[in-house]
Amino acid sequence: MMSADSTNKIDSIKQINSAIKHGDYREADALVDQLCKAQGFDTEYPMPDSFISELKEKEHNMRKHSTKHKWQKKVAIWAVVIAALGAGGFTTRAVVKDMVKQRMEAMPEEKKEDLLKILDSVPTNAIYESRELTAAEEKRRLALTNEYVKGKFPENEITMVRADNIEDLNNLDKDTLYYVYNRARIYYPERELTDEEHLQVIDLFKKQEYVIQERYERDYKDEIEAAEAEQQKASEESNITEEKAIAIADEFRNKVLGESGREITEELKQKLISRGIAEEALAEGDTELIVDIVFCEATGDSEEDPTYLINYNTNTMALYAFVINAQDGTVEDMFITFDSGMEELSTSAAEESVPALYEKAKEDLKIQFGISEEYTETHYSYFTNTDSETIHFNELSFLFVKEDGTGYRLTYNCNAKELSRYSVIKNFDDFLQQQADNESTNNKTFIMKDMK
């Protein structure tokens, strides 16, 4: 079985994305903590409700644990965590287009210092936003984020105010958008937001992220360079280079998904829409997929091989993730993004789809993956949400197990009836234990049944 560092990584990314998307920052905190511990270190400071405060905590934790050994692990794991968060919002790892970069770099130093003073003064338990955006507002925010990347900026900055007590808050104009900086809260009017207001919020987030990242890179320049050098050395000592790993992932996408190259074609756009990904997720400037690769060493005393985590992204979200063995080039895990906000099917509806999807899984394994082997056990499995009889993430998996306990897992989205994940099983008993651990820590129930 692959290590927790590779097997659980994509599960954790999906769960963090979903938690943040639905505003459940406490759950996201627990999931980030779990992911960090899987990398071999503890997180003294949990991720607070404010995403900006989360970035500050990252910076603070880096100071607390800046030993050479842990720096290497932290750079890798935070790259994964921030990439995960980036699929659902604005992050320092998001690609900054030239116009945005110029806007950030043009900020006066005094303005940067003012933003940092504000950020350094906010409480760690701050509330991120005063209310959830409506579905229409979320759609418009996404579209305007793409416009922002292309250079559509607000005419004015968001109104920043200080509110020391409830009376101050009550005195705020309920029809005005505010950033109450000493509480790290954005207060939305109850009416629908205008384009200008959306852009002001986007601009505020981007500027906050920029000044924090700029300070972080300035203050820890030597440590970051040392960690990157160590990772580069470890990568070069592996049999598979970064370039080769990306080539393997490219070839796998072509063979299994029929997607050649990285150009974002009209055909690819239609595929994404069929996966529940809104058309607005692609900006007009998105002409090709962006590839992001992280080298992950095996943790602790593990005998597992190091791996590469490869993400294929647009400017606003991650579309695919691969875990490639850095020694032999095996694709150990592949994940395809579907809309985590899709309504989750009932268990009965999912069960009805088992026969047809099982036939598809057998065909895909043989035709798409080129795997024709004998299996002593075949099962299907899924997780149910403990608070409802629904299928977690709408995912139904088929497990093909050989006599020696190795095998393969093919997972399908029950709504789209499409492949959402492929995984190598190295030890079935360990795999089952891992599902039990996942069940106990993530408030869901693992169900596995034999195929007849």
Mean pLDDT rating = 77
Uncertain parts: 1-8, 20-26, 39-96
**From the helix content, strand content and strand pairing, which structural class follows?**
alpha+beta
Alpha-carbon distance between the termini?
Answer: 25 Å
Task: Set out the fold topology.
Elements: H1 4-21, H2 25-38, H3 51-64, H4 68-86, H5 98-105, H6 109-121, H7 135-149, E1 159-161, H8 166-170, E2 178-180, E3 185-187, H9 195-219, H10 221-237, H11 242-257, H12 266-274, E4 290-296, E5 307-313, E6 318-325, E7 331-336, H13 347-352, H14 354-368, E8 377-385, E9 395-401, E10 407-413, E11 418-425, H15 428-441, E12 444-450
Parallel strand pairs: 1-2
Antiparallel strand pairs: 2-3, 4-5, 5-6, 6-7, 7-11, 8-9, 8-12, 9-10, 10-11
Helix pairs in contact: 1-2, 1-4, 3-9, 4-10, 6-9, 7-9
Please describe what this structure looks like.
This protein is of the alpha+beta class. It is built from 15 helices and twelve strands. It has helices at residues 4-21, 25-38, 51-64, 68-86, 98-105, 109-121, 135-149, 166-170, 195-219, 221-237, 242-257, 266-274, 347-352, 354-368, 428-441; strands at 159-161, 178-180, 185-187, 290-296, 307-313, 318-325, 331-336, 377-385, 395-401, 407-413, 418-425, 444-450. The strands form two sheets. The protein has a nine-stranded antiparallel beta sheet, with helices on both faces. A three-stranded mixed beta sheet has the order 1-2-3, with no helix packed on it. Strand 9 and strand 10 (407-413) form a beta hairpin. Helix 3 (51-64) runs parallel beside helix 9 (195-219). The longest helix is centred in the middle third of the chain and has 25 residues, at 195-219. It is globular and about 70 Å long.
